[in-house]
């Protein structure tokens, strides 16, 4: 697992209080990991802080799964 | 229209002297002090270094990790206390009409720690407003009743009352009136507070409101004593299940007491100082007697607001003499804040619970830490000093007053004869 992927997963485990095994690439924050709208906002903010990036709202809307978050951040950090 | 009768069918408490009703009563009965050095933060720069914190409480015992993060401590206390009361009431939530169950909850401040920490984070940054999305919903005072209703599905009236230290007394009175008027069958009511934080201690310290007896915290809350020097900040929650009498009878509920009335008034005088002649306090007790259909001589006990501040204690006792006349000296007057400290918005609820437990046990909990009589206080008054007193209680009153000049008083009557 890439460094980015493991850090993303650690944030999700911490913020959503879910088991690490559930945080698979295709898992949806809301449908699979029990996040509500406020949790989703908090996750995006944590990604921004952890990786020192800005995720504009219109792009944040497209990040709804673990894999999408990892790809977005990997792209942003290139 | 005829008002419906309202009874108490469940109790819950999370206090500095006991984490449930049984422990709370044990603490009250034995004159236990909940005061101790503050453990939540470094107090070395603070004038007051002690408070009445909740002890041996771990949120993780009650909530999963995600819930803990979404709940300020004042909301955690609300859920823990109300869960105990709901369970105690024995009400079967699968058969009752949840549209007929409401929650009215008092909090003087709300999520002060959440507010403080979010603002500290903001101030450390570069000015970019990166507030946590849970900041507002964790902090607002009404999230406590909101969370109670979400947990149990109660869909009746739901809101918070905010009147500083009178908040949960106002909550109980509103809850009482909704049932009296037929809007609900059951109301979960009470209050919670968690203000033992840097902002809370610093803020009250700068008002010179808190005791600074750092060398002897357990002796600091000493209502009516000549050497009292301010209140001791407490925290926690208290919950009562109020229920329409016929509804309670029909399901064979255990009934603690009848809630016979409530009084409300305002000092209309000063933001924080009590009126020196206690005119608002006189009015609130008179209102409560009238609303309860009582004569002054019916009252057996008064759990006072009695915070251990120089001005407030004297004004309240003067007012009691004014309202009750000669009968005042027959009343068991006490201040359980001598043990619990001042729970602010939760005070009205935990003190009403103390009054109800006293009635149940025919024992008035003491006003502890009294050493020196105050010459401004009539020595003929029975302030239940230092030791509990046995007494058959038919009617108990509980006073609470808040910054802003808010006064509230609730009356309970024994159901033993019915």
Q: Which band does the percent of strand residues of chain B land in?
A: 15-25%
CATH class value of chain A: Mainly Alpha
List segments of chain B where confidence is low: pLDDT < 50 over at least 5 consecutive residues: none
Calculate the terminal CA-CA distance of chain A, rounded to whole Å. Answer: 17 Å
Helix and strand pattern of chain B: EHEEHHEHHHEHEHEHEHEHEHHEEEE
Number of strands of chain B: 14
Roughly how many Å apart are the termini of chain B?
24 Å
Instruction: Output mean pLDDT of chain B.
Output: 97
Largest sheet of chain B: 10 strands, mixed
Number of strands of chain A: 0
* CATH architecture assignment of chain A: Orthogonal Bundle
How many whole angstroms does the radius of gyration of chain A measure?
Answer: 11 Å
At the fold tier of CATH, the topology name of the largest domain in chain B is Peroxisomal Thiolase, Chain A, domain 1
Topology:
The complex is a heterodimer of chains A (78) and B (418).
Chain A: H1 3-16, H2 37-51, H3 57-60, H4 66-76
Chain B: E1 6-14, H1 21-29, E2 36-37, E3 50-51, H2 65-70, H3 73-89, E4 101-106, H4 112-124, H5 135-139, H6 143-152, E5 158-161, H7 167-180, E6 186-193, H8 198-206, E7 236-244, H9 245-250, E8 257-266, H10 279-292, E9 301-303, H11 310-324, E10 332-334, H12 337-340, H13 347-361, E11 363-364, E12 389-390, E13 395-402, E14 406-413
Parallel strand pairs in B: 4-5, 4-6, 9-10, 9-13
Antiparallel strand pairs in B: 1-7, 1-8, 2-3, 6-7, 8-14, 11-12, 13-14
Protein name (chain A): Acyl carrier protein
Function (chain A): Carrier of the growing fatty acid chain in fatty acid biosynthesis.
Main location (chain A): cytoplasm
How does this model look, in words?
The complex is a heterodimer of chains A (78) and B (418). Chain A is an all-alpha fold and 78 residues long. Chain A has a single domain, classed as Non-ribosomal Peptide Synthetase Peptidyl Carrier Protein, Chain A (Orthogonal Bundle), CATH 1.10.1200. Chain A contains 4 helices and no strands. Chain A has helices at residues 3-16, 37-51, 57-60, 66-76. Chain B has 2 domains: 7-250, Thiolase/Chalcone synthase (Peroxisomal Thiolase, Chain A, domain 1, 3-Layer(aba) Sandwich), CATH 3.40.47.10; 262-413, Peroxisomal Thiolase, Chain A, domain 1. Helices cover 33% and strands 18% of the residues of chain B. Chain B is built from 13 helices and 14 strands. In chain B, the strands form 3 sheets. In chain B, strands 5-4-6-7-1-8-14-13-9-10 form a 10-stranded mixed β-sheet, sandwiched between helices. In chain B, strands 2-3 form a two-stranded antiparallel ribbon. Chain B has a two-stranded antiparallel sheet with strand order 11-12. In chain B, helix 11 (310-324) links the parallel strand 9 and strand 10. In chain B, helix 3 (73-89) packs across helix 6, helix 7 packs across helix 13 (347-361) and helix 10 (279-292) crosses helix 11 (310-324). The two termini of chain B are 24 Å apart. The A-B interface holds A 15-17, 34, 38-39, 41-42, 45, 48-49 and B 64-67, 69, 130, 132-134, 137.
